[in-house]
TrEMBL record:
Gene3D superfamilies: 1.20.120.1630. This is Protein-S-isoprenylcysteine O-methyltransferase Ste14. GO terms for molecular function: methyltransferase activity. It comes from Mesorhizobium sangaii. The chain crosses the membrane at residues 39-62, 91-109, 115-133. The keyword Amino-acid biosynthesis does not apply. The keyword Transferase applies.
Length: 165
């Protein structure tokens, strides 16, 4: 895949997947963000910081797919190369972690149990998808390279020091 196509495809998928899961659905679940901000001490700044940091991580992860992997995160247009640079040296699933962090940040921002429950449901769905589809697919596609990466980098809780592989 050419770089421009990878960037365009990744941008479209960014809107279609995390844009819906972490943007549109929480917007609908919280009455179009009509809830007042949390009155609990610390929830608003922590939630806001979590959202901003997660959006930055998500943008970084998407750019790695397009520029390093020459593909998209969409299963219909996968990368040509295994993406293991940047944030991927700290956690194998940064996009899912970021999306869940955005949802949890909104749950804090609005003190919303509905969004907290949505994050839990989303986490179960994402972990299941990774275990049942992504990991076997990556193992078949990239073989020993993926297995070494999988053994060296945690899937969900980022490590502080980068994997050197």
């Amino acid at each position: 895949m050419r770089t421009f196509s990878a960037i365009a495809g990744s941008a479209a998928f960014f809107i279609a997947a995390p844009g819906v899961v972490a943007g549109l659905v929480p917007w609908l679940l919280t009455d179009r963000w009509g809830l007042p901000w949390s009155s609990l001490p610390g929830f608003v700044p922590v939630g806001g910081l979590l959202i901003v940091a997660a959006i930055a991580a998500l943008l970084h992860a998407f750019s790695r797919f397009a520029l390093e992997g020459l593909g998209t995160p969409a299963p219909v247009a996968p990368t040509e190369r295994l993406v293991i640079g940047g944030i991927y040296r700290h956690v194998r699933n940064p996009m899912y972690v970021a999306v869940l962090s955005i949802i949890l940040g909104q749950a804090l921002l609005f003190s919303s149990w509905t969004l907290a429950a949505y994050a839990i449901i989303g986490a179960v769905a994402m972990v299941s998808f990774v275990r049942l589809y992504e990991e076997p697919t990556l193992a078949r596609r990239y073989g020993a390279q993926y297995e070494a990466y999988r053994r060296g980098v945690p899937g969900w809780l980022p490590r502080l020091t980068p994997w050197r592989g």
